[in-house]
Design goal:
Layout (H helix, E strand, L loop, with lengths): L19 E7 L2 E6 L5 E3 L8 H4 L2 H8 L5 H21 L5 E5 L5 H8 L3 E6 L2 H10 L4 E3 L2 H4 L6 E7 L8 H11 E12 L4 H6 L13 E2 L2 H10 L2 E9 L3 H6 L3 H7 L4 E8 L1
Parallel strand pairs: 4-5, 4-7, 5-6, 7-8
Antiparallel strand pairs: 1-2, 2-3, 3-9, 8-11, 10-11
The structure holds zinc ion.
């Protein structure tokens, strides 16, 4: 028994349980699996976590700097347009779209040019500034709660690569529920900790990056989160890199069938 086992545990971020099974220790953080909903999460005390110390210019540059070059930008806009094609299957009339964690704003920019009215939030100051000043988008630098948006006002909410970063995913999803109109669409992607692509890579998985990634979902814990916050799952599939290119090459359906991805893509309806 280690000393940690005598300390009170952080309650599970999805179901509130304090029963965990040891999963992995990565970069000094304890990742443990909830015995009830199966969410894998950091169970160390994160009360001193400072968002502005994580989502710095270096963080965004490291992950997104390629997007500033023309070829990279084309990939970002292709991806955005693929995602919008998918979203518009459910919301053909478009309308008001809210993006959480909009980064530089490329997805919002693509949506705006297709006739959506877009609003976004981004906690990284450097990326938010680009979205506001360079792309002229309606973006708040900060969290969803701080943006103080009107309830029941959005037709769709998008969260790309965001859920895994949240210390309080339950609270954020409750907020998303309140912002969406009844019947509105939630679309998100997040790493799948039980995808076989992840299991092949073990602890070397690219998505094990605590403390930036706090919560690691699988299909069960993602569905539990939706259920608990008033959403109905419409569709769950795989998120893939370069989806438009794969579609052109007629490989997208094959890749999805084989599950050649470590991320899930989820569509849900606000009840
Ligand atoms: Zn749980």
């Amino acid at each position: 028994m280690t000393e940690n086992e005598n300390l009170p545990k952080t309650p599970c971020r999805v179901c509130g349980s304090t029963q965990y099974r040891r999963f992995k220790r990565i970069k000094g953080y304890d990742l443990e699996r909830c015995a009830d909903c199966s969410l894998v999460q950091i169970t160390n005390d994160l009360s001193n976590l400072r968002l502005d110390e994580i989502y710095t210019q270096e963080f965004h540059d490291e992950i997104y700097s390629w997007q500033h070059q023309e070829a990279g930008k084309k990939i970002a806009y292709d991806k955005s347009n693929y995602r919008l094609d998918e979203i518009e299957r459910y919301v053909p009339d478009r309308g008001r779209l809210f993006e959480i964690g909009c980064s530089f704003g490329f997805f919002m920019d693509a949506a705006r040019s297709r006739g959506w009215q877009t609003t976004g939030v981004e906690v990284g100051e450097y990326a938010a500034k680009y979205a506001i000043q360079t792309l002229g988008l309606e973006v708040t630098h900060g969290t969803t709660a701080a943006a103080n948006l009107p309830a029941d006002s959005f037709d769709a909410v998008a969260m790309w690569d965001v859920l895994e970063h949240l210390d309080e995913p339950l609270g954020e999803m409750q907020l998303v529920h309140s912002l969406l109109k009844k019947g509105g669409l939630l679309v998100l992607n997040t790493p799948d900790v039980d995808a076989y692509m992840r299991r092949l890579q073990g602890s070397l998985w690219r998505c094990f990056i605590p403390p930036a990634h706090i919560a690691y979902f699988n299909t069960k814990s993602a569905e539990r989160l939706l259920e608990r916050t008033g959403f109905r799952l419409l569709e769950r599939t795989f998120a893939l890199p370069r989806e438009r290119l794969l579609q052109k090459l007629k490989l997208l359906d094959l890749f999805k069938t084989l599950g050649l991805s470590d991320k899930m893509l989820v569509f849900a309806e606000r009840l």
